[in-house]
Amino acid sequence: MNYQAKTKYELIDELLKLQRENESLKISYSKDISECIKLLEEQRVREKYYSTLFDAVDEGFCIVEVIFDENEKPIDYRFLVINPSFEKQAGLTNATGKRMRELAPEHEKYWFEIYGKIAKTGHRSALRIMLSSSTDGMMFTHSVLANRKPYRLPSCLKTLPRVSKLRKLIK
Q1: How confident is residue 18, by pLDDT bands cut at 50, 70 and 90?
Q2: What is the average pLDDT across 130-138?
Q3: How many domains does the chain have?
Q4: Distance (Å) of CA 99 to CA 8, 39, 133, 142
Q5: Distance between the two ends of the chain, CA-based, in angstroms?
Q6: CA-CA 20 to 30 A from 107: which of 54, 90, 116, 133?
């Protein structure tokens, strides 16, 4: 724009117009910021609710990342997320971020094979497994859902206390 060719009044009108546009932008911007703050606060409330629920449920829950070797054979898995019930039922402490081989070097190979198969096939249905752990004789169900690459598997663990107590009495 050539401001030198405009009169003083035209420049004042131009400035007033810019000021009105700027005010409407301020109001619009302020509404957007207020809405974002409200949405963030609502999200924090939801996250706190779900976090409390996640920590309070009796079922153990974890998300593991399956680790494969160069031949695509499952060799380990890393715990990404764990709730307190999982730690208690699985007998693990401070496992988040650690690999299973790091926590239990002699861990049964079939777990790696099961998790590897689920991770590779990508089946989204729950797999229910009832096994007797060779270490303590406890019985439990383990539901594992698949997620294609990255090979992250959410899973739930539930100890069957009556069966476990009965097995201990028999021994």
Answers
A1: confident
A2: 53
A3: 2
A4: 74, 36, 19, 19
A5: 93
A6: 54
